[in-house]
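Dear H.,

Thanks for agreeing to be a second pair of eyes. The structure we're designing against is below in token form, covering all 368 positions.
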């Protein structure tokens, strides 16, 4: 393995630790202070995902002026993340929005650099997924420990330091041959034209999955009771199972059509929504939650989008994927104001997922 790849994998692990810990801590804070408030939860989800809109901007700018410079924005994101521990729960959506804007501008330069450096290798990207999943696994345990034993101010300050360190590490070690791809505005416009259908697939898939599962997690929290157990079930165990399966998905996407991975993930998510709506046993819920579906969806979408674009636009490819998640957050904010019942949320999510599957089929026929 080329030494430069370790830079990407270590940074991905560190940011995964932050993501897993933040997820556990933030959900615990919301549950303790707001209860099963699906409207506030939808606002938080939207604040977490909407900043991804800036990913396509960050990706384009990085491909044009240089990817390494964009990483400095990531270091600044440590400030609003740390401040979450010093404010009341009502300010979390605002602070996470600011944090998300900075990271969304910076992260395409990480993933775009990897995809360019490896010529859109599914196996290389899958190891990024493994690194991030293992980080989430550690972060899930760390988040449970923070909620149980540390003041929120100390815990969130620790996560802010990890974010700063992760971005500085990759900034200092970024491989020079992909740091300045030199794309032009005309290249960017043509790239956007190539991937708009896959962008729609991703947008609808993430709207459907996150609208349901990010709300259903409050039901899981109420079932499990203990915050450490909650962190293990919703973060650590799924992250570990995801890390185990991701290398297989990388090889599968290199040898076959990554769109098949996307279609499989959408259908599996639809099935699991139906199951969760009809299951009330905490043990069964915990077992179902451990199934690694997300890696199929991300691997399939990212590699499909990446292979539509040349190397000098790989930060754009990463930005397009993340921006679709962002707009999904905006849609969730609208939908969250319409539904405060987990059953209706589930059936609405199913409809959105099948719309996503329809656009995926369209993208396959357009390619043919």
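And this is the sequence the design step returned. I haven't edited it by hand at all.
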């Amino acid at each position: 393995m080329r030494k430069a790849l370790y830079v990407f994998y270590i940074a991905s692990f560190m940011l995964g630790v932050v993501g897993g810990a933040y997820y556990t801590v933030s959900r615990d804070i919301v549950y303790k202070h707001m209860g099963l408030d699906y409207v506030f939860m939808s606002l938080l989800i939207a604040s977490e995902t909407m900043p991804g809109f800036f990913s396509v901007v960050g990706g384009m700018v990085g491909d044009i002026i240089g990817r390494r410079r964009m990483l400095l924005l990531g270091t600044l994101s440590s400030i609003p993340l740390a401040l979450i521990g010093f404010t009341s729960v009502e300010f979390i959506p605002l602070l996470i929005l600011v944090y998300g804007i900075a990271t969304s501008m910076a992260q395409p330069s990480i993933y775009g650099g990897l995809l360019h450096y490896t010529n859109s290798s599914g196996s290389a990207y899958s190891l990024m997924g493994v690194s991030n999943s293992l980080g989430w696994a550690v972060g899930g345990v760390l988040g449970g420990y923070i909620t149980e034993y540390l003041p929120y101010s100390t815990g969130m300050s620790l996560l802010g330091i990890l974010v700063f360190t992760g971005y500085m590490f990759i900034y200092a070690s970024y491989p020079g041959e992909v740091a300045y791809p030199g794309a032009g505005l005309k290249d960017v416009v043509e790239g956007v034209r190539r991937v708009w259908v896959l962008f729609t697939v991703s947008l609808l898939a993430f709207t459907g999955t996150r609208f349901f599962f990010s709300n259903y997690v409050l039901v899981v929290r109420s079932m499990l009771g203990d915050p450490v157990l909650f962190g293990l079930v919703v973060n650590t165990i799924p992250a570990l199972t995801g890390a185990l399966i991701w290398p297989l998905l990388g090889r599968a996407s290199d040898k076959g059509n990554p769109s098949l991975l996307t279609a499989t993930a959408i259908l599996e998510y639809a099935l699991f929504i139906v199951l969760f709506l009809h299951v009330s046993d905490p043990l069964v819920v915990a077992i179902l939650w451990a199934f690694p579906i997300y890696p199929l969806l991300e691997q399939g979408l990212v590699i499909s989008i990446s292979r539509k674009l040349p190397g000098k636009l790989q930060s754009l490819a990463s930005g397009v994927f993340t921006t679709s998640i962002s707009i999904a957050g905006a849609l969730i904010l609208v939908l969250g104001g319409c539904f405060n019942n987990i059953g209706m949320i589930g059936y609405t999510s199913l409809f959105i997922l099948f719309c996503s599957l329809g656009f995926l089929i369209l993208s396959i026929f357009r390619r043919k």
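Two observations from my side: The mean pLDDT is 84. Residues 185-224 form the longest helix (40 residues).

Warmly,
E.
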